[in-house]
Amino acid sequence: MNILIFGPPGSGKSTHSRKIIEKYNLVYISSGDIIRGEINKGTTLGREMEKYLSQGDLIPDIVVNTLVLSRLRRTRNNFIIDGYPRTAEQVLALENYLYDHGIRLDVAIDIFISKEESIERISGRRICSKCGAVYHVHYKPPKIPNTCDICGGKIIQRPDDKPEIVSKRYDVYIKNMRPIIKFYRKQGVYVQINGHGGIEEVWERIRPLLDYIYNKEKKRKEHE
Q: Which residues form the signal peptide (predicted)?
């Protein structure tokens, strides 16, 4: 089963991606994780990408395509790609790669939330500067203010999580995703999921869809 999953900042796509890979034993390819990994290495490319993120801008397509497709080459099938593609150019690069390698997408899941919800979720997010543990000022605060429960590191707000940056990121996301959604809708694989509500509530909207696709694919292989 090959899946794309996307959604505005704070939609929970990464959280649900991890639930999906655990249930269906898929390889997880996260554009965000790949990019942050490069930034954490402190490379020249990482520093350049960090500048784009801190301003709420998209990283150039050629850079993202190279990073994500390099990871996909080591996987081939049974994957979920989180947060990619985000532009028409990225769609073209991905579709060319899939066509050249005979790979078929089963579903493109769009977990949608409003701009107000996005800003509330993301601007309240805090991370540990030492171990990367994630907290939220309203939903999951640390036991001791500004101190990580796990390692005792300092809790910080990432520059790209500030309200004004989140608002810009949301607007950029919506603008860029319109033609992408249109494309995958025409391909017959696009499904929008209401992302409002708790994690388990949203998961119960996603799970039946994937159970159906998984069982359908399983039956197809049994009859080959």
A: none
Measured at the CA of 135, the angle between CA 132 and CA 137, to 5 degrees, comes to 145
Q: pLDDT for 120-141, tens place per residue?
A: 999 999 999 988 888 999 888 9
Residue 169 bears catalytic tag: yes
Question: So what's the architecture of 3-119+162-222 in CATH?
Answer: 3-Layer(aba) Sandwich (3.40)
Name the percent of the chain lying above pLDDT 70. Answer: 100
Answer yes or no: 130 catalytic: no
14 assigned to a ligand binding site: yes
Q: Is 134 flagged in the annotation as binding?
A: yes
Per-residue pLDDT tens over the stretch 137-177: 988 899 999 999 999 999 999 888 899 999 998 998 999 99
Q: Find all residues with CB under 8 Å of 188, minimum gap 6, and list them.
A: none
Q: How many residues does the chain have?
A: 224
Would you list the domain boundaries of the chain?
3-119+162-222
Q: Binding residue per annotation — 172?
A: no
Known catalytic membership, residue 104 = no
Q: How far is CA 218 from CA 87, 176, 214, 223, in A?
A: 32, 34, 6, 9
